[in-house]
Amino acid sequence: MPDRDQRTNRLLSLLSDNDYERLRPHLSPVVLDYRKSLYEASRPIEHVYFPIDGVASLVITTSDGASAEVGTIGNEGFVGLPVCLGDRDAPSSVYVQVPGTALRIDARIFRGELERSPTLNLVVLRYAHAFFNQVAQSAACAHLHRVERRCCRWLLMTRDRMPSGDFLLTHEFLGMMLGVRRTTVTDVMGALQKAGLIRYRRGHVSILDHEELRQRACECYEISKLEFDRLLGDTAVAPRTDKKHRLVSKVG
């Protein structure tokens, strides 16, 4: 497992020195507990979060109380996208689905820095483009690909955002991501475990055969991954950690 101090957020690693130095005093490490609310629908967004590990889920809730996950955010991006698009709230909510850690900044300060710096604004807008492409790809994926292939894709996406191949991933989250019932989740995860690709027990996943999981995933995994690399430059597995002040231990 990588040392905690050697992990960083991809977007923060892409910022110019000037942009990062203005943000750094306002960044505070926080723990992302399971089901923690990062912002609520139709309420002001008070903080922006840059995940280091873990996964946040963008959720739409209908008037009858039903919920659907429409996007996920990990260490490739940030939570609080409406802020960079000039809004103060959103019709969706974001909460933590896979526990982890993040760097947090007051939304008003972040909004001010966006107005001040064209280069910072460009980086977050490129992320916004990549995120919306991910959402669009996921919508097409839900209609066109079999559940098992989509499940492999989501497992790989979650693994990419975590420091190791062992992480919490509940039936509820998988069901929301895949748009299926819990019984279907149980069947699909059971089949992957029987094939020796994963170990799944009490909501905890261990990736045992990453390459075979990649072979079984639908093409949407590679498409989304390449699109993030195209728009954000450095790869998620090798961000610009040569800039030591961008690491988790060097904030505040």
Question: Can you describe what's shown?
Answer:
43% of the residues lie in helices and 22% in strands. It has helices at 10-14, 17-23, 81-84, 107-116, 118-144, 147-160, 171-178, 182-194, 210-216, 220-232, and strands at residues 28-32, 37-39, 47-61, 67-73, 93-106, 166-168, 198-201, 204-207. It is globular, with a radius of gyration of 18 Å.
Task: Outline the fold blueprint.
Blueprint: H1 10-14, H2 17-23, E1 28-32, E2 37-39, E3 47-61, E4 67-73, H3 81-84, E5 93-106, H4 107-116, H5 118-144, H6 147-160, E6 166-168, H7 171-178, H8 182-194, E7 198-201, E8 204-207, H9 210-216, H10 220-232
Antiparallel strand pairs: 1-5, 2-5, 3-4, 3-5, 6-8, 7-8
Helix pairs in contact: 5-10, 6-9, 7-8
Query: Which descriptor suits the 3D outline?
Result: globular
Strand content: 15-25%
Overall mean pLDDT: 87
Helix content: 40-55%
Global structural class: alpha+beta
Number of helices: 10
Oligomer: single chain
Question: Which parts are unreliable, with pLDDT below 50 for 5 consecutive residues or more?
Answer: 1-6, 235-245
Q: Give the terminus-to-terminus CA distance.
A: 25 Å
Number of distinct beta strands: 8
What is the gyration radius calculated from CA atoms? 18 Å
N-to-C SSE series? Answer: HHEEEEHEHHHEHHEEHH
For the report, how would you describe the main beta sheet? 5 strands, antiparallel
Can you describe this structure in just a few lines?
This protein is α+β, with helices and mostly antiparallel strands and 252 residues long. Helices cover 43% and strands 22% of the residues.
